Amino acid sequence: MPSTTISQVAKRAGVSPSTVSYVLSGNRSISEETRVRVRKAIKELNYKPHAGARSLRAGKTDVVALAVPFYDWSSEPVLMPYVYGVVEAARRHGWNVMLVTGGTGDVSDVEGVVGSKMVDGVVLMEVRLHDERLRLVEDLAIPAVALGMPSDPVNVPFVDFDFESAGRLCVEHLVANGHRHIGLLAAPPGAFDKNLGYAHRLWGGVAKGLADAGLSFNGLPLAPTTEAAQRALETLFGRQPSLSALIVHSESMLEVLMRTLAQRGLNVPDDISVVAVAWRELAKHIVPPLSYVNVPAVEMGQTAVELLAEHGPARLLPPTLELGATVGPPSKT
Length: 333
Fold this sequence. Notes:
Helix content is 42%, strand content 15%. The protein has helices at residues 6-13, 17-25, 32-45, 76-92, 111-115, 132-140, 163-176, 189-193, 197-212, 226-239, 254-263, 280-283, 297-310; strands at 63-67, 96-100, 121-124, 144-147, 158-161, 182-186, 219-221, 245-248, 273-278, 291-294, 315-317, 321-322.
């Protein structure tokens, strides 16, 4: 017989799944009437809470799942720092990490592993604005952390980088250097098709920063190919011939983009300025030295595990700008 789910208990009691979780955990104050109703539904349905809903310190399996979907456009150098951060922190807690690498980012990628009680907790990567996986782990009452900020209110803590503020910071830096015609080369198109939160928030931050400065927005998603970089630059310069600066969020394309600009006869920063949002280790190899907002990928992975261990509050890590040699004043020609 299939196990009773927390959603079924919630439906019988006429409350939300999170309320059932609160009654079970005692983490929030619930009225006595509601508590009695939930306990009655639990008894009637013979609901057995997931063993992992108790503290991970109980060490039921000493395994946590890391759900990281690999898409057609996924870049190993971009994703692996997050994975390393999770694995490194888990090792310090004496836990092993089970990598769950579905290709859809949907509930089906994780429900088998999570529902099987093979793991004590789960870290969800590549979080969407409206991510059904968050509802799944809530329903199963298994400890979980989102490595990415969801838009929907859920009872799952998260850690994320403040991509919206990062986008605004890039705009402010370029505007302070005199730029008025700024283009955005954003995350790959698939990231927007999948509604991944980081892609939309960076895009929104740049758009808002430009609007606040009284400037027009000119942006494109950038697929991870040389041909895509060439087409994107053609499109941006076609829309705005006076383009003097680029904000780049397609981290894996930084070297390709710099070569493509050189092939167009554009010197950085004399002819065009470039500022990126990227992990430090990807940015530091760029020539000339890149101006960029560092994405603390390893720290985010580590923090996700600490939140899983301590049941801590959500964290949004602030952006910082690393000054290089790729931003200068607009060309006067």
